[in-house]
From TrEMBL, chain A:
<protein>
    <recommendedName>
        <fullName>Sorting nexin-2</fullName>
    </recommendedName>
</protein>
<dbReference type="InterPro" id="IPR001683">
    <property type="entry name" value="PX_dom"/>
</dbReference>
<dbReference type="GO" id="GO:0030027">
    <property type="term" value="C:lamellipodium"/>
</dbReference>
<keyword id="KW-0966">Cell projection</keyword>
<comment type="similarity">
    <text>Belongs to the sorting nexin family.</text>
</comment>
<feature type="region of interest" description="Disordered">
    <location>
        <begin position="1"/>
        <end position="104"/>
    </location>
</feature>
<keyword id="KW-0007">Acetylation</keyword>
<dbReference type="InterPro" id="IPR036871">
    <property type="entry name" value="PX_dom_sf"/>
</dbReference>
<keyword id="KW-0967">Endosome</keyword>
From TrEMBL, chain B:
<dbReference type="InterPro" id="IPR014637">
    <property type="entry name" value="SNX5/SNX6/SNX32"/>
</dbReference>
<dbReference type="Pfam" id="PF00787">
    <property type="entry name" value="PX"/>
</dbReference>
<dbReference type="GO" id="GO:0035091">
    <property type="term" value="F:phosphatidylinositol binding"/>
</dbReference>
<dbReference type="GO" id="GO:0005829">
    <property type="term" value="C:cytosol"/>
</dbReference>
<dbReference type="InterPro" id="IPR027267">
    <property type="entry name" value="AH/BAR_dom_sf"/>
</dbReference>
<feature type="coiled-coil region">
    <location>
        <begin position="279"/>
        <end position="306"/>
    </location>
</feature>
<protein>
    <submittedName>
        <fullName>Sorting nexin 6</fullName>
    </submittedName>
</protein>
<dbReference type="GO" id="GO:0005768">
    <property type="term" value="C:endosome"/>
</dbReference>
<dbReference type="Pfam" id="PF09325">
    <property type="entry name" value="Vps5"/>
</dbReference>
Length: 513, 372
């Protein structure tokens, strides 16, 4: 397979070891071993410019997903930009759309990051307007006891030619979503794309569901999760690149999906992830980058500030949700108490008015409950989503630093080798001299290539990040405006109802004589 | 007519009586300064006066309770470092407003007490009451010392034990029997309603505080943002600033019109219960005096003494019964009137605030939608 290990120094041996009998692949990597042709037929849709699904051997330079069964020059700028660079080792079979890219790893990088590829993708977007709507619904408990899980129905409605049908549905479980995110993150994060994070795991929440507690809190948990999964998918498909990723398409369309076991928190893959994260954190602290471009520093600072403020706002909104729920409960209790008081009041008209008051308060408590839900599902979750998204954004900036570091490391190594070469001139062992000289020349050549590649990688990721940040900010503005307006509308509705209720009560109060 | 003396001693209240129509006053207009303890002294003097056994003694005003506010002030001081200057100033202002509101409420409740006394045909003539209003020196009312407090405690214990005893005895008089049943149940339910309304209002205040913090955060976000969102956030922040003031007002009005009403009738119904208790005690005394008289006649010893005693008890009991009946009827009238007034005002205020809120929300939405 041509998949390369992410960030690995260009030594193919690493990757191949991973491939063979690696216990991190608990299930046979069926899709990886099958012929590229068969892969394409089932899983890959061509770009949006028309029904090219059958033309696997399409020569169209704009075709993102051209099957590489033909010899395509690896230096052509129209190579698949995104798909062959490094799946994470810890994931169930990723669907690599181009299975026959020859493993000259250093050079494939070259192709992926040329300018034209990205530009072409954006042009293609114009061809098919963005029209896709995904809903996650009908949570259903499957199985019993600790092995039980919730299955969600994922329905896609679309007019885009990217898909085989205009409306279709599949059943997915939570780990499937995590698996999808895992694959996307491994493919796109390190080259600068902001991949939306998946909803968080919750051991407590899930255990309640497994154990079969059919109470309000476990129902709320399921609803919260369902809503989060829906928002996650919509965010993912709104990204023009991710939408076309074969893993995304497979997730939405195919009825059977291989289980993503390595997303379990305590699996060996999970542990590997934790170790990698720790290593990353240490590295981040030690990288001191010479920032030549003020834009990046500025943007990083901006996102840092935004993160702090959003977290603060999120905390306040969560507190509001909590207090509003309390208000609802307390209002209900007061309503009951007022009803009792009305019963014991021996003046008839007053007694009736008190009962009416109790009724009004009961309706109002339901109003508070509804408002608390709007507070949560609209406002609070929006903020929570963006706090998580900002983590992905920061991650992308970090990857850029790493890419820079890699480039610098290659450069330093090259420098050392050159010095070593120079030293060789002064050796007085002539017989070994020629051999050593040749060796070093070879190494220097290789390193020169690496340095060039490193510089290209760095430039490409910088370019990608600029575009991504611009897209992200546009989305952010749109999201916040849309959702906050919806939230304000919910507040309007509440006030209108309140007016109705009190207007009905006022004459009752006046009628006390 | 009351004026607050706003210093750090919340027990300091001054009171001014303008153009009094009450007879027996030496001047027409005068003002004195009274502390909470002196109100309590006046109330207790009524309770202990046998002459007033047949009246519902207006309940004493509650002790001013600034504990919650003091706690908040302390927390504010401790948390000063963790918030922005604007936030701190804002919270401080609110706390001061809250303090002032509680102060005003306390003053009002003391005033209500005095007005109730002044309105009562018999109590208004009380000498202590006149002294309270006129004597422009400190009344030197010392708080009860330990011994007296202990005596009070035992008196209450005895009263409740007796209360149980008396409650068990079915009254011959239908009117009083009905009142007894009614008051016992009513008092408990008012107590419950009062507690629940307090909890409800506290949640409301908490929510208003949250909206305040949300408004501040949105403001900061608005000043920091470089995109279109900056104006958006600032507008929404402004909106929430205004709506949370309304929410705080709603909580305050509910407190005034609903919670205070219930608290007041909790105290009044207790005072009415106390009256019934005193009447029952008088009845028991009367019945005991009858028995004693029969015994004396049978033994033919101390008959005159027993007769006098029996006549006194009879007279006392009848006097109490007569005034108690009127008092309880008045109590009902007052209660119905107070509930009517407060419930109407509550509904009107709720409507006013909801309409205000709605207007603000719709106005803001119009602007926001117009700009997107």
């Amino acid at each position: 397979m041509a998949d390369t290990a992410r960030d690995a120094p260009p030594e193919q041996t690493d990757f191949h070891e991973l491939e063979d009998g690696e216990e991190l692949f608990p299930e046979p990597a069926t899709t990886q071993e099958s012929q590229p042709a068969s892969l394409a037929a089932e899983d890959i849709s061509t770009n949006s410019n028309g029904p090219k699904q059958d033309s696997l051997f399409d020569d169209d330079p704009e075709d993102l997903f051209a099957e590489a069964t033909e010899e395509v020059s690896l230096d052509s700028p129209e190579r698949d930009v995104l798909l062959s660079d490094g799946p994470s080792p810890a994931i169930t079979p990723i669907t690599p759309p181009t299975s026959v890219i020859t493993p000259r790893i250093g050079h494939t990088h070259d192709d992926m990051f040329t300018h034209s590829s990205f530009d072409e993708i954006e042009e293609e977007e114009g061809g098919d307007s963005f029209d896709i709507h995904i809903s996650v619904s009908d949570p259903e408990k499957v199985g019993d006891g600790m092995n039980a899980y919730m299955a969600y129905k994922v329905t896609t409605k679309t007019s885009m030619s990217l898909f085989k049908r205009s409306e279709f549905a599949v059943k997915r479980r939570f780990s499937d979503f995590l698996g999808l995110h895992s694959k996307l993150a491994s493919k796109y994060l390190h080259i600068g794309y902001i991949v939306p994070p998946a909803p968080e795991k919750s051991i407590v929440g899930m255990t309640k569901v497994k154990v079969g507690k059919e109470d309000q809190s476990s129902n709320e948990f399921v609803e919260k999760r369902r809503s989060a999964l829906e928002r996650y998918l919509m965010r993912t498909v709104k990204h023009p690149i991710l939408l076309k990723d074969p893993d995304v398409l497979q997730f939405l369309e195919s009825s059977e999906l291989p289980r993503a076991v390595s997303t379990q928190a305590l699996s060996s893959a999970g542990l590997l992830r934790m170790v990698n994260k720790a290593a990353d954190a240490v590295n981040k602290m030690t990288i001191k980058m010479n920032e030549s471009d003020a834009w990046f520093e500025e943007k990083q600072q901006h996102f840092e500030n935004l993160d702090v403020q959003l977290r603060k706002l999120h905390t306040s909104v969560e507190s509001l949700v909590c207090h509003r729920k309390e208000l609802s409960v307390n209002t209900a209790q007061f309503a009951k108490s007022a009803a009792m008081l009305g019963n014991s009041e021996d003046h008839t008209a007053l007694s009736r008015a008190l009962s009416q008051l109790a009724e009004v308060e009961e309706k109002i408590d339901q109003l508070h409950q509804d408002q608390a839900n709007a507070d949560f599902y609209l406002f609070s979750e929006l903020l929570g989503d963006y706090v998580r998204l900002l983590t992905a954004v920061k991650g992308v900036f970090d990857h850029r630093m790493k890419t820079w570091q890699k480039w610098q490391d290659s450069q330093m190594l090259l420098q050392k080798k050159r010095e070593a070469e120079a030293k060789l001139q002064f050796t007085n062992k002539p017989d070994k001299l020629q051999q050593a000289k040749d060796e070093i020349k070879e190494e220097i050549e290789e390193l020169e290539g690496k340095v060039q590649q490193g510089e290209r990688d760095f430039e490409q990721i910088s370019k990608t990040i600029r575009k991504e940040v611009s897209r992200f900010e546009k989305e952010r503005v749109k999201d916040f405006k849309t959702i906050i307006i919806k939230y304000l509308e919910s507040l309007v509705q509440t006030q209108q109802q309140l007016i109705k209720y009190w207007e009905a009560f006022l004459p009752e109060a006046k009628a006390i004589s | 007519m009351m004026q607050e003396g706003l210093d750090d001693g919340p027990d300091f209240l001054s009171e001014e009586d303008r153009g009094s129509t009450l007879p027996n006053f030496k001047q027409n207009e005068f003002s004195v300064v009274r502390q909470h303890e002196e109100f309590i002294w006046l109330h207790d003097s009524f309770v202990e006066n046998e002459e007033y056994a047949g009246y519902i003694i207006p309940p004493a005003p509650p002790r001013p309770d600034f504990d919650a506010s003091r706690e908040k002030l302390q927390k504010l001081g401790e948390g000063e470092g963790s918030m922005t200057k604007e936030e701190f100033t804002k919270m401080k202002q609110e706390l001061e407003a809250e303090y002032l509101a509680i102060f005003k409420k306390t003053v009002a409740m003391h005033e209500v007490f005095l007005c109730r006394v002044a309105a009562h045909p018999v109590l208004r003539k009380d000498l202590n009451f006149h002294v309270f209003l006129e004597y422009n020196q400190d009344l030197s009312v010392r708080g009860k010392n330990k011994k007296e407090k202990l005596e009070d405690f035992f008196k209450n214990v005895v009263k409740s034990a007796d209360g149980v005893l008396v409650a068990g005895v079915k009254d011959v008089d239908d009117f009083f029997e009905h009142e007894k049943t009614f008051l016992l149940e009513y008092h408990n339910r008012v107590k419950d309603a009062s507690a629940k309304s307090d909890r409800m209002i506290r949640s409301h205040k908490n929510a208003a505080d949250d909206i305040n913090r949300i408004a501040s955060s949105l403001y900061t976000l608005g000043t920091q943002d470089s995109t279109d969102l900056c104006k958006f956030f600032l507008k929404v922040s402004e909106l929430f600033e205004k709506t949370r003031k309304i929410e705080a007002r709603i909580a305050a009005d509910e407190d005034l019109k609903l919670a205070d009403l219930l608290k007041y009738y909790l105290r009044e119904s207790q005072a009415a219960k106390d009256l019934l208790y005193r009447r029952s005690r008088a009845l028991v005394d009367y019945e005991n005096a009858n028995k004693a008289l029969d015994k004396a006649r049978a033994k033919n010893r101390d008959v005159l003494q027993a007769e006098t005693s029996q006549q006194l008890c009879c007279h006392k009991f009848e006097k109490i019964s007569e005034s108690a009946k009127q008092e309880l009827i008045d109590f009902k009238t007052r209660r119905v009137a107070a509930f009517r007034k407060n419930l109407v005002e509550l509904a009107e205020l709720e409507l006013k605030h909801a309409k205000g809120n709605l207007q603000l929300l719709q106005g803001c939405l119009g602007i926001l939608k117009g700009n997107t």
